[in-house]
Specification:
Oligomer: single chain
CATH topology of one domain: Glucose Oxidase, domain 1
Number of helices: 14
Helix content: 25-40%
Distance between the termini: 67 Å
CATH class of one domain: Alpha Beta
Largest sheet: 15 strands, mixed
Structural class: alpha/beta
CATH architecture of one domain: 3-Layer(bba) Sandwich
Length: about 500
């Protein structure tokens, strides 16, 4: 399938668009940077002669403004570099909080020994959950035989699954928490905005890398004091918005949902809106059979405020789906969504920690992890890759009630989708260079062309040919589940028995 992108976009234009996005600043949910990016995106769509529609929202926003850690030993006072603040953890006064440090050796339960102290807790890289628990590979890949690692690893997985329970620390009377990354390259975890899936915790917490953390641990074991400063703002009525536009089809009754999110941390997370601009520009003058709805949601980095189970799950798109059933559910004269496309994390180079422990570029292309909602959507995806020069990809189906990325709500609502959720280690990093050294505009261009091909191929098929969504698979064995949850169950039991002693009821 030939796609003429003349006067639409190019690698050079995509590079400039991504740089323009970076110029707004870090686009966390509800920030001025995100609002300005949204304004820019809407203006670009309006310039194409297309109307946009908006869902404004308000929510409680936390933002770190200053962080510092100073340890006061008997003989010296020194500052320890902080890798990042723990998002939505808490705040201190401008002078910080000063208290004796204590090493929490029994994660979570050990907080009971941290009353009126600053708890120091090690967070080991996740290594006990087999990938099969979360991922069901469709046994199709380019190159042939490509497989995911056998176990979860990396900063995002570790922070999402193995994070310290700050609310238990608060309940135990700790004044603050210092989280020490263990087992992950120090350069890799610098600036990680993790985890971002929790509500406000009410206790200040920061992350320190392994090298600097070893000194913190040594001082905590000696009973040294520390001053932890984590200043921040809380805006109870922060503004943000989701928006969408519509390309009408020649036939009535059916739709295709194409979605991404506008909040993000760097040039990769999230550049999906840039690709969608090119898709809109190309498709707007084509004789589309179905109505195509391009949805730019907010709230991906504030999921506790934007997820809605009625709209298909824990991702931010679920809120939009709940509010706009007329665009997809097929009931009472509503449009019926026959397919969806989720556009996230384009142009990723592969950066990993090598055998020498150095965090560097180790491959040309990061693995493109793609969910496909059924066999036809899988076929469409691989057909769209023809003539690609840069391809390193495999496909998955939703598995064990897990489906990552903003494609999950579509899948959960029974909409067969193709959802790109490339997961580089740098995905949630906030840095001065916006991680541009890990971005490849040529790759993003190829991926954008592939997305256009997917849309055209989907539109050429009948709903019957596309078929229904597969639904979740469940192939995890009882032993796998037992092995992966043993530690969690043990901790939960200990917490239940010990924490009750400090509960006020």
């Amino acid at each position: 399938m030939e796609i003429d992108m003349t006067n639409i976009t190019s690698p050079e234009l995509l590079q400039k668009e991504v740089e323009k996005m970076n110029s707004f600043g870090v686009r966390l949910t509800g920030t001025k940077a995100q609002r300005n990016f949204i304004k820019y995106l809407k203006s670009r769509i309006h310039d194409m002669g297309i109307e946009t529609f908006s869902d404004p929202s308000r929510f409680m926003r936390w933002e770190e403004t200053n962080k510092k850690l100073v340890i006061k030993d008997l003989d010296e006072e020194f500052e320890v570099p902080i890798s990042s603040a723990f998002p939505y953890s808490g705040r201190t006064p401008a002078e910080g909080i000063t208290a004796q440090m204590t090493l929490v050796k029994e994660k979570h339960v050990g907080y009971l020994n941290a009353t009126d102290k600053i708890a120091v807790v090690e967070v080991n890289e996740l290594d006990f959950l087999p990938s099969e628990i979360a991922f069901n590979e469709r046994e199709r890949s380019i190159p042939e035989g490509l497989k995911l690692p056998s176990h979860y690893s990396g900063p995002v997985a570790t922070a999402f699954v193995n994070f310290p329970f700050l609310k238990i620390a608060k309940l135990a009377g700790a004044k603050g928490v210092i989280c020490i990354w263990k087992g992950i390259n120090d350069d890799c975890i610098e600036g990680q905005y993790l985890p971002f899936i929790l509500d406000y915790q009410g206790i200040p917490a920061v992350w320190v890398n392994s090298k600097n953390g070893q000194k913190v641990i040594e001082e905590a074991e000696k009973g040294a004091f520390a001053t932890l400063t984590l200043e921040g703002i809380i805006d109870e009525y922060a503004k943000t918005e989701s928006f969408w536009c519509v390309l009408d089809g020649e036939e009535e009754g059916e739709s295709v949902i194409i979605n991404t999110h506008t909040d993000g941390t760097n040039c990769i997370e999230e550049n999906g809106p840039i690709a969608m601009l090119a898709m809109i520009k190309y498709l707007k003058d084509k004789p589309l059979k179905r109505t195509h709805i391009f949805v730019f949601v907010t709230g991906h980095f504030r999921l506790p405020n934007f997820k809605n189970i009625d709209g298909g799950g824990v991702q931010a798109t679920s809120k939009w789906l709940t509010a706009h059933r007329s665009h997809w559910d097929g009931k009472e004269g509503h449009l019926k969504a026959v397919a969806g496309i989720s556009v996230e994390h384009l142009g990723c180079k592969m950066w990993k920690t090598d055998e020498n422990g150095e965090y560097r570029q180790t491959g040309d292309v990061e693995t493109e992890i793609v969910y496909t909602g059924n066999k036809m959507m899988d076929d469409i995806y691989f057909k769209s890759l023809e003539d690609r020069k840069k391809v390193y990809t495999l496909t998955l189906r939703g598995h064990n009630l897990l489906h990552f990325g903003e494609g999950q709500p579509l899948f959960n609502c029974g909409i067969p989708e193709i959802a790109l959720v490339t997961a580089p280690d740098c995905l949630c990093v906030i840095s001065d260079n916006n991680e541009m050294d890990k971005f490849d505009a040529e790759l993003m261009y190829e991926q954008t062309v592939s997305f256009i091909k997917m849309a055209l191929m989907i539109d050429s098929l009948t709903a019957q040919e596309i078929g229904p969504c597969d639904g979740y698979s469940a192939i995890a064995t009882k032993k796998m589940v037992e092995d992966s949850t043993a530690k969690i169950k043990e901790v939960a039991s200990e917490v239940a028995s010990k924490v009750k002693d400090i509960l006020p009821f």
